[in-house]
Specification:
The complex is a heterotrimer of chains A (287), B (283) and C (367).
Chain A lengths: L4 H30 L2 E3 L5 E5 L2 H8 L1 H35 L3 H12 L6 H6 L2 H4 L4 H8 L14 H25 L3 H9 L4 H12 L1 H17 L2 H6 L7 H10 L3 H23 L4 H6 L1
Antiparallel strand pairs in A: 1-2
Helix pairs in contact in A: 1-14, 2-14, 3-8, 3-11, 8-11, 9-10, 11-14, 13-14
Chain B lengths: L14 H27 L18 H8 L6 H29 L7 H13 L2 H14 L9 H22 L4 H9 L4 H30 L2 H4 L8 H11 L4 H31 L7
Chain C lengths: L7 E10 L2 E11 L4 E5 L6 H9 L6 E6 L2 E2 L5 H4 L1 E4 L11 H11 L4 H14 L15 H13 L5 E5 L7 H18 L2 E6 L2 H7 L2 E6 L2 E7 H6 L4 H7 L2 E12 L2 E6 L2 E7 L11 E7 L4 E3 L10 E13 L3 E6 L7 E6 H6 L7 E7 L4 E2 L2
Parallel strand pairs in C: 3-8, 3-9, 6-7, 7-8
Antiparallel strand pairs in C: 1-2, 1-4, 4-5, 9-10, 11-12, 11-14, 12-13, 14-20, 15-19, 16-17, 16-19, 17-18
The chains are: A mainly alpha (287), B mainly alpha (283), C alpha+beta (367).
């Protein structure tokens, strides 16, 4: 008697499911359930059905402000990480001739990913602060008379921190898809008389599309779901959806927080779904 | 004619090469520069502040970090973070390896599992944290770093581990397994003597992800670690009330730990790859 | 008897994947100690048969007997077969010595025995000096020797080779071909070798099995396959033949007269294998090296000889012979192999008109 192959596969993924189900699926279900219930004001939840939490979310002007602010951060971060990430990946794949050197430089870019984000954020303080190095340089060279205050604890520093942390999420997938491009294809195109611009537009950009999509999914979902960078880097001056959610739960308002969370997740799922329409992520990842 | 030959066209770098080199250098400087600043500033003496110029040179703030009570329970949280990271690493390696093996061929329901995994990866950490907190509350369980926080971190490290495993497995030739079976190896022998050793560099990479992601995890841990903090949560509370270079000193210490782990992992991967590298030139 | 252990018999073997049938109705007997080549284009099912003999796949129907015993459902080790994989599948993390010792190690042989037998096998395959290298550091030919040593160390009764020479360059391929033959004779076991290269099969095999789309087309000694192909497919795939489509004009006892579109009066002997009648469409084969070319002015065609008037379409110098392409059959190839010295006695150029003749008893009626 042979065990069906599907059963063996399920046996192998069962440990994964034993983690994913209690620590991802069930918590999400709990959050959705809580969003339809009433709080007792002390962190407890009463099992009474109510639309109140959603009415609250959709009637507040604040909600729209939060989403505008969050989407603003998301778009700005996405734009800069894409531009920088694409050119870095392109540079590493097509301009570095030694494969070993390219791999080394690639690792140089990825090492900070494995270090603490919090520390990397804090480390902007001595640079961007009012008495930081950048201001010292600007004042010293006479570009500005007074130290700039907008450099730290502002929207600017929030975007800087996001780009700093997340560009790697663009570099890696774009690097991967470009590294798979057969260099002879580019040579053949050049041979056929294509200009460098033609090659970029007709060959390299289309071939890096899946990498861009994958990177975008990471960047967008991380920025949309983050509260921590906004909180630390804006010094409390900027808001985002999850930052507001964090305020909610620190005063033990779980059901309204849950409603906020559900709306946010729906928005994120729609955005990611739109990206997934353009690329088969499963094929891209498993090849 | 003795005039030097015109350099071949292909050898000339286009102007974009120099522009992109500049961009790359700038990027790497921006990546490492700020970190270097705080390492430097953490070695100031008693008069030190949060910005340049450096005031003196000492290890005062490192001593302060581990002796002063007002900076919080650094030693305890450091201890917990390391233990938790090791636990997460071991589980991540084992579970990702198995899941990677399963995903080598299609099976009924594989797409569902795949997208659950992706969902778990990109879910907002704080929302998951709230959900896990409420879930524990519902079952009257006490959240702690080695139960709820462990699970919360695994919900992040496992998808990462499996994705890395996918990349590793895609370069694994099924014929190695078949050859081993043909030569008389049992399933267990194939796994132990062929699959694991061949995939070892990839498995080390999974361990690297598991350890560092856990060691630095914050968003999912904040709501789930219970009454005892992990190090990133401790740092987070410090950013709110500590304004001395001891914050930087802590940054330096954690980063040194990270770098040791990264160095060990990448070093051993490089060693293994070098040993197996093709030496076409020798023949 | 131990001596008969390596004979293989396939009886009614079929293999299908869902609706796709990879091989069908395979009946075949391979004697012990034979060098047998499965020859066919890719996708013809030859590798599937090999993998079924090896035990990596089970037949949907039919029996596979090795040494008289049905082995369907047995593991490769129990069958005492060993397979040499395409591109060898050497374990990249193990040295040459450890690769070869692998089958002994998984059988939990003692350290001394492993060392002794591994050394002996490396000696036999002439790779002793490579013992501590990793596969990545070996050339293609060296890798093949290691793969062979690894497969042979368990003393299998059948060795199965899947396209063993395809990873090598031309020169090395000829060299390793000889080496395979030498090893087969030295080991004295049955070799089953899958290839899509005709030359390889003919040069190596005692027995050649020609396959097409899951079926065996012809089975026999190499010379038989080459010299007397059964049908158009085998003749064209094995090569060296001109295949001409003809209509039967007259049957006269032990011979027949045929006509092709541009040619009249092709005489052919009838072997009695096949009955033909006037008006039948038949294929005949004429070996390319049986053709002689004459200038038309040099007299007519003698008795018992068939001649076709033709124009030279192309000439290709091949070294010891010259390949002359003729347009007698229109678009279809009609080629003569002329010995080099003979050709250059009176060199032909493109456009020349020649008469291609062959002796009637050399032409072969195909099925």
């Amino acid at each position: 008697m042979r065990v069906p192959k599907s059963l063996t596969s399920w046996f192998y993924v069962s440990p994964l499911l034993l983690v994913i189900i209690p620590f991802f699926v069930m918590p999400i279900i709990v959050v959705i359930a809580a969003s339809f219930m009433q709080g007792d004001g002390f962190g407890g939840i009463l099992p009474t059905f109510t639309w109140e939490n959603y009415q609250g979310v959709f009637s507040e002007q604040l909600t729209w402000n939060l989403y505008v602010s969050t989407v603003k951060f998301t778009v700005l971060t996405w734009f800069f990480t894409l531009i920088i990430g694409f050119w870095i990946a392109y540079y590493l794949v097509f301009h570095i001739r030694s494969e070993l050197l390219a791999m080394g430089l690639f690792l140089l870019c990825t090492v900070p990913f494995w270090t603490s984000n919090i520390i990397r954020m804090i480390s902007w303080i001595p640079l961007l602060g009012q008495n930081g190095l950048v201001n010292m340089a600007l004042v010293g060279s006479g570009v500005v008379k007074e130290p700039l205050k907008v450099l730290l604890f502002s929207d600017f520093s929030v975007v800087v921190a996001y780009v700093h942390q997340l560009t790697i999420f663009m570099i890696v997938p774009i690097f991967n898809s470009l590294a798979r491009v057969d260099k002879r294809v580019v040579e053949a195109a050049r041979d056929a008389g294509a200009s460098r611009w033609d090659i970029m537009r007709r060959i390299i950009l289309p071939l890096s599309r899946s990498g861009i999509a994958l990177g975008s999914i990471f960047v967008i979902s991380i920025v949309m779901g983050d509260f921590f960078v906004v909180k630390v880097m804006s010094g409390g001056n900027s808001a985002s959806v999850v930052a507001a959610l964090f305020e909610n739960i620190s005063v033990l308002q779980y059901p309204p927080a849950a409603a906020h969370a559900v709306v946010l997740m729906i928005v994120v799922v729609i955005m990611i779904g739109a990206i997934l329409r353009t690329v088969d992520i499963r094929k891209e990842i498993t090849q | 004619m003795s005039a030097p030959a015109v350099r071949p066209l292909l050898d000339r770098r286009p102007w974009t090469f120099y522009a992109l080199t500049a961009l790359f250098v700038f990027y790497v400087l921006a990546l490492y520069g700020p970190m270097l600043c705080i390492y430097l500033l953490s070695f100031q003496d008693l008069r030190g502040g949060l910005v340049f110029p450096m005031k003196g040179l000492s290890v005062h703030w490192f001593v302060d970090l581990f002796t002063q009570v007002r900076t919080g329970d650094v030693k305890g949280s450091f201890d917990r973070s390391i233990k938790l990271a090791v636990l997460v690493t071991v589980i991540t390696v084992a579970v990702s390896f198995l899941a990677g093996m399963a995903f080598r061929r299609r099976f009924r329901g594989d797409t569902v599992v795949f997208y659950l995994m992706i969902g778990s990866l990109v879910a907002p950490g704080l929302v998951l944290g709230i959900g896990i907190g409420l879930l524990f509350q519902f079952f009257h369980l006490e959240p702690s770093w080695f139960t709820s926080a462990l699970g919360a971190q695994l919900s992040l490290t496992l998808p990462f581990g499996v994705l890395v495993m996918f990349a590793v497995m895609s370069r694994f030739d099924r014929r190695w397994e078949e050859a081993a079976r043909d030569l008389g190896a049992s399933s267990w022998q194939i796994t132990r003597m062929v699959v694991i050793p061949i995939l070892l560099p990839g498995i080390v990479a999974v361990a690297l992800f598991g350890f560092t992601l856990s060691y630095d995890e914050f968003a999912r841990t904040l709501q789930t670690s219970g009454s005892l903090n992990t190090l990133p949560v401790e740092i987070w509370t410090m950013t709110l009330n500590v304004t001395s270079p001891s914050l930087y000193a802590l940054g330096t210490v954690t980063t040194i730990v990270s770098f040791i782990i990264i160095g060990l992992c990448l070093g051993s991967i490089a060693q293994m790859q070098k040993r197996r590298a093709l030496h076409k030139a020798s023949h | 008897m131990a001596g008969k252990a390596g004979n293989i018999e396939l009886a009614g073997v079929c293999k299908s994947y869902g609706t796709f049938t990879a091989v069908e109705g395979i009946n075949l007997k391979i004697p012990d100690g034979a060098y047998c080549c499965f020859l066919g284009p890719s996708g013809c099912g030859k590798t599937t048969i090999l993998r079924m003999i090896a035990g990596h796949e089970d037949p949907t129907e039919g029996e596979i007997l090795i040494g008289g015993e049905n082995v369907v459902g047995l593991a490769p080790t129990q069958r005492r077969t060993a397979m040499m994989f395409q591109s060898y599948a050497l374990f990249p993390h193990l040295s040459v010595r450890d690769n070869i010792a692998f089958p002994l190690r998984v059988r939990k042989a003692s350290k001394e025995e492993i060392a002794k037998r591994t050394d002996a096998m490396m000696e036999k395959t002439r790779i002793t000096e490579l013992a501590n290298r990793l596969p990545g550091q070996l050339s293609g030919g060296q890798q093949q020797r290691v793969a062979l040593a690894r497969a042979a160390i368990t003393e299998p009764r059948v060795l199965l080779l899947d396209e063993p020479l395809s990873a090598l360059d031309e020169q090395l391929r000829i060299q390793m071909r000889q080496e395979l033959r030498r090893m087969q004779q030295e080991l004295g076991i049955t070799f089953i070798h899958v290839t899509h290269t005709q030359l390889e099969a003919i040069a190596l095999a005692d027995l050649v099995v020609v396959m097409e789309q899951g079926h065996i087309k012809q089975f026999g000694p190499a010379r038989e396959i080459y010299a007397t192909p059964k049908d158009r497919y085998v003749a064209e795939f094995v090569g060296g033949q001109n295949v001409i489509k003809c209509t039967v004009e007259r049957v006269n006892g032990s011979s027949a007269t045929l006509a092709a579109p541009n040619v009249k009066g092709i005489e052919i002997p009838l072997g009695g294998k096949r009955r033909i009648a006037e008006g039948d469409e038949v294929d005949i084969a004429v070996r390319r090296d049986d053709l002689k070319l004459h200038r038309p002015e040099k007299g007519g065609v003698g008795p018992g000889t068939t001649g076709i008037s033709s124009r030279v379409r192309g000439v290709e110098y091949q070294g010891y012979f010259v390949k002359v392409m003729l347009d007698a059959l229109g678009e279809q190839d009609f080629i003569a192999y002329i010995p080099e010295r003979e050709f250059f006695g009176d060199p032909l150029t493109i456009g020349d008109v020649v008469v291609a003749t062959w002796s009637a008893e050399r032409s072969l009626l195909l099925a």
